[in-house]
Design brief:
Number of strands: 0
Structural class: mainly alpha
Largest sheet: none
Oligomer: single chain
């Protein structure tokens, strides 16, 4: 009896250890977000008021949704440099075409989502059929989407109906920000998707495309689906950006794309594919935004934003690869530690 009981404990503990090891990057990024938010609440007056929390949620939503889309492509082993261009395209469509009527708001919102998903699907189709690296293809298409955005709106401007802006950035029942509601719906939607084969197929082609193809996974169709889903998320990002700025900006530039990918890394999604989640992109985006808010609240210089972002990225990469770090210590020929 004693022997049987002694064996049962490690058997029960192993799944927990395995789960913690697999989820450690996400757990770490979530813990950092909680810690940062506590500091944000201390340093920013009114952070815990309804208005303050609504502003916080709204300000981070656009980059968070873009990061969620970028994370889907990264999970599948790709890299999408058209994040900012597609977001800007949707932004200028809204700023130039939406009118202050319910019919127009619904029509343009649906059109914006279709344009984002279609642009993403075209990215995926180009990657699939040309067999070129996704970073090259999306670099090229980013210029195309940016050009179309400039064709729609040559310079920053336009306008967005205040009723649309209020609906997106306002609050619903019991003061819950609508942006938070959308983010929660996005998380629940991904949890539902995770119960389908799509998530497994994304991770499979991200980990080893040849093996995925040999096991009957339609690699091309999954790649197109990944980019289309990402484009849909960029469209959501563009809608939020339009509501926040109530205007159009055709040249969002590389900064928006870089911030989205920084959020992907900070959230714990592994570059190269085979691991990750759009939810981690959401978390990573708010980690970065919260750090910027803290620096702003304490009056730090602008250059500190870049320094802190770099430091967070380095820490995120180290946390993502603890095994490599430990392996390096064991084989370190200088220190001789381990063996």
């Amino acid at each position: 009896m004693t022997t049987t009981s002694g064996r049962a404990k490690p058997t029960m503990a192993l799944p927990l250890v395995s789960f913690a090891a697999r989820k450690s990057p996400y757990i770490a990024s979530l813990a950092v977000l909680v810690a940062f938010f506590v500091v944000h609440a201390i340093t920013s007056s009114g952070a815990l008021t309804t208005f303050g929390f609504g502003s916080y949620t709204n300000a981070g939503a656009s980059i968070a949704l873009a990061a969620a889309g970028a994370a889907v492509v990264v999970m599948a082993g790709g890299f999408d440099l058209s994040v900012g261009a597609i977001t800007a395209l949707v932004n200028v469509i809204v700023a130039t075409q939406m009118r202050d009527s319910a019919a127009s708001i619904v029509l343009i919102t649906v059109l914006a989502l279709v344009v984002g998903a279609a642009a993403g699907a075209l990215n995926g189709a180009f990657v699939t059929f040309t067999k070129l690296p996704s970073v090259i293809v999306t670099l090229a298409t980013s210029f195309v989407w940016s050009g179309v955005a400039l064709l729609v709106l040559a310079s920053p401007g336009g306008s967005v109906p205040q009723s649309f802006a209020d609906a997106i950035t306002g609050s619903g029942l019991v003061g819950v920000p609508n942006a938070l509601f959308v983010l929660i719906v996005a998380v629940l939607a991904w949890l539902l998707v995770s119960r389908t084969p799509l998530r497994v197929h994304l991770l499979a082609i991200g980990g080893d495309p040849a093996a995925a193809r040999a096991n009957g996974i339609p690699v091309g169709r999954i790649q197109i689906a990944a980019f289309a889903l990402a484009g849909f998320c960029y469209a959501l990002s563009g809608l939020f950006l339009s509501a926040l700025t109530v205007s159009g900006t055709p040249d969002l530039g590389a900064d928006f794309t870089l911030n989205a990918f920084a959020a992907v890394v900070v959230g714990g999604t592994q570059f190269g594919g085979g691991r990750g989640s759009p939810i981690s992109g959401l978390i990573g985006a708010y980690v970065l935004y919260t750090s910027f808010s803290i620096l702003f609240a304490i009056g730090a210089s602008t250059f500190m934003n870049y320094v802190l972002t770099g430091a967070i990225l380095v820490l995120a990469v180290i946390i993502q690869n603890p095994r490599n770090l430990l392996r390096g210590r064991r084989t370190d020929p200088v220190s001789g530690a381990g063996g």
